[in-house]
Amino acid sequence: MTRWGMVIDLGRCTGCAACEVACKSENNIATVSPDQADLGRAFAWMKVMTHVEGEFPNTTMRFVPRPCMHCDNPPCVQVCPVGATYINDEGIVGQIYARCIGCRYCANACPYTVKYFNWLVPEWPETARAYLNPDVSVRPKGVIEKCTFCHHRLQKAREDAQALGRELREEDYQPACAEVCPTGAIVFGDLDNPRHRVHALKDDPRAMRLMEDLGTEPKVYYLTPRD
After folding, report:
1. What is the dihedral of CA 83, 86, 89, 91, to 10 degrees?
2. Beta strands in the chain (DSSP E)
3. Is it the case that residue 217 has pLDDT exceeding 80?
4. CA 133 to CA 1: how far, in whole Å?
5. Residue 65, preceding bond cis, omega within 30 degrees?
6. Which pTM value belongs to this model?
7. What is the pLDDT of residues 38-52, one digit of tens each?
8. Pick from 117, 64, 93: which is nearest to 217 by CA?
9. What is the C-alpha separation between 42 and 205, in angstroms, rounded?
């Protein structure tokens, strides 16, 4: 059985935020006004966090890309009263927007703060509407939205592979963030498939997961820097 996951090498990440920009463009993520951002209503399905190591003046700045962790034991799924948040048989934690009632239980249950409530009707300038991705819905006001590992790309890759009469390959399906990373810091694939790079990387001695002591079993691994 497939179990999609991600490994992010913190030693390679330069904090360029190309993954953030690609995620916003690929998934039709709305940009809010400065006033709304001040209220904490900005969206970032993939967000590059900063972490300072050491004490001044001997400090080092690290960058930590943070998508949804797509946990194997997701607390958000357990608390949703209407089944809008779910985990499929391939380990991707999805969101059914038509079911979501905006109670925000899932956002409160998520220890990684990767879920966002859509406070307003999303708006784009007329000149930007032509650039919206037709493969991804525009979420309405009053629902929770989050990273989906660009699940729509998986559907397209499967259809293309089926049309060619072959199985799905590792390079066929990549989320936008992994595809654009200029340093190759983000590696995506099937965690349980020995032929995929992430299978070996997740067992690297440098590999760790965020707050894994909570028992959420996140499927996003980080490789600590070598230095």
Report:
1. -170
2. 4-9, 47-55, 58-66, 85-87, 93-95, 116-117, 144-145, 186-190, 207-208, 220-223
3. yes
4. 30
5. no
6. 0.93
7. 998 888 999 999 988
8. 93
9. 36
Sketch out the chain's domains with CATH numbers: 4-223 (3.30.70.20)
Sign of CA dihedral 145, 89, 68, 159: negative
* 127: CB partners within 8 A, 6+ apart: none
Alpha helices in the chain (DSSP H): 18-26, 34-38, 75-79, 105-109, 151-163, 176-180, 197-201
pLDDT tens for residues 128-176? 888 899 999 999 999 999 999 999 999 999 999 999 999 999 999 999 9
CA atoms of 198 and 178, how far apart (whole Å): 12
- pLDDT for 68: 98
**Average pLDDT taken over every residue of the chain:** 94
